[in-house]
Write a structure and sequence with these properties.
Blueprint (H helix, E strand, L loop, with lengths): L7 H7 L2 H5 L3 H4 L4 H4 L2 H5 L12 E5 L5 E5 L9 E7 L8 E6 L17 E5 L5 E4 L1 H4 L7 E9 L2 E8 L5 E4 L4
Antiparallel strand pairs: 1-2, 3-4, 4-5, 5-6, 7-8, 8-9
């Protein structure tokens, strides 16, 4: 059984003829997609499929070939919109900082705001493990859209910018 994710008022705004067929939520709520649209309409519909929705690491071997690797579950708590790589813990291995979240969404799906940033420490062999906030000291708030490491006269800092919010600055983990 296939049901629509769109609520009645959203769908009828875009397809006004449906407003006459489904004037009340009670009528609409039990309808399957095949109740609302004819087989001919569905046959001509564009169907898009997504098979991998998780945040994934794609490593380039330098020759244009990529290896796809899973990353820790902590990077899956919310959509990722910002990433920065570098040696953030001073062990000479590349690490990854991730930030994200999305607040401006339809009420029926809820906000995507379960991430306070993710620090993934690299092992130098392509593997990454999540470093807890209590160890890293990084705790990003809001919808993070960019992360940068900046060298200041007093040392390195991590700067995280957010959508419609203040810039956040953290002392770098390793100095």
């Amino acid at each position: 059984m296939l049901y629509l994710l769109a609520l009645s008022h959203y769908l009828t705004t875009h397809i006004p003829v449906l407003d006459r067929l489904y004037p009340k939520y009670e009528i609409f709520r039990e309808q399957q997609i095949t109740d609302i649209f004819s087989p001919e309409q569905l046959q001509n519909a564009v169907q898009l499929n997504a098979f991998k929705l998780e945040t994934t690491l794609c490593m380039n071997d330098g020759s244009g070939n990529f290896t796809v690797s899973p990353i820790p579950v902590e990077a899956q708590f919310s959509p990722v919109y910002a990433a920065e790589t570098g040696d953030f813990n001073g062990d000479d291995n590349p690490d990854i900082l991730l930030g994200g979240n999305l607040h401006n969404v339809k009420p029926e799906v809820g906000r995507y705001d379960a991430s306070y940033g993710t620090f993934l420490a690299g092992d130098g062999k392509g593997g990454f493990s999540s470093v807890p906030v209590r160890v890293s000291g990084l705790h990003f708030n809001g919808e993070i859209r960019d992360i940068m490491e900046i060298v200041m006269p007093t040392g390195k800092v991590i700067v995280a910018s957010q959508s419609n919010g203040p810039v956040q600055v953290f002392k770098a983990i390793a100095q």
